[in-house]
Amino acid sequence: MKYLIANWKMNSIDIEEWQNRFNKTLKLNKDIEIIVCPNYLDIIKCSQQAPNLIMAAQDVSIHDDGPFTGQISAHQLSRSSEQLKYCLVGHSEVRFKGDSNSTVKKKSQKLEGCNINSILCVGEDESILNKGEREKFLLNQLDSYFQDGLCPKFIAYEPIWAIGTGIPADKKNIDDALKIISIFLKEKKLKKIPLLYGGSVSSKNVEEIMSSNILSGCLVGNASLDGEEFARIAEKL
Ligand code: 13P
To answer: Residue 63 in contact with residue 113, Cβ under 8 Å?
Structure first.
């Protein structure tokens, strides 16, 4: 089974047009689960206009319902749409706003309590990579997450230095990072969790990226905004 996730971030998408372009291009005859991450407001719109779409939220609050201006609780997410099955946690763009490893874990705990699966994002920035500290950094992100029996549905390796640049990580870097994650999971005797890659994936590079046989799929930002391009990626996955 392969997985392809569209992270639409804060982009405005015309869901009807996106779906038309996606369906027109897609001829899939393989097993791929497609998931899209709309912004909070569009989750409801998407479930009305695209009743077969499986969705993930882009973030969640660490709190339960209460006086937390601008936030959305896991409970509210779970009531928003039956098509919402997942939520990203630990995306670097959310970590930039201040989410620590322990915040990421708390968010996942709240989601688990509401039967929403977590998509855990990990990944280093360029200075960590250049200093040769990637392994230590990734293990720290993973170790703090997996302390209390939590288990995400997916782990996405998203090197910050490749996100939004148009240039994905090369095969060696992807393989090295995936090996670090796989060995960690094996040593902790954790069940097999599908590993994804994210960072400038497009229809032009997805085959090269997926040639890494530890990968189960991709998490796509920019190239997922156009339904046609996203379908081309799905075809090549
Ligand atoms: P890009 O595909 O735009 O690099 O974004 C990747 C990403 O952040 C997906 O979550």
So the answer is: no
In short, whether 168's Cβ falls inside 6 Å of ligand 1 is no
For residues 152 and 192, give the distance between their C-alpha atoms in angstroms, rounded to a whole number. Answer: 11
pLDDT per residue as tens digits for the range 225-235: 999 999 999 99
Task: Check: CB of residue 182 under 8 Å from CB of residue 195.
Answer: yes
Q: What is the CATH number of domain 2-236?
A: 3.20.20.70
Active site residue 235: no
- Is the CB of 221 within 6 Å of ligand 1? yes
- Quote the pTM value: 0.97
Quick one: 87 exposed, middle or buried, by C-beta within 10 A (0-12, 13-18, 19+)? buried
Give pLDDT tens digits for 183-198.
999 999 888 899 999 9
The CA distance from 60 to 165, in Å, is 26
Domain chopping of the chain, boundaries:
2-236
The verdict on whether 93 is a catalytic residue reads no
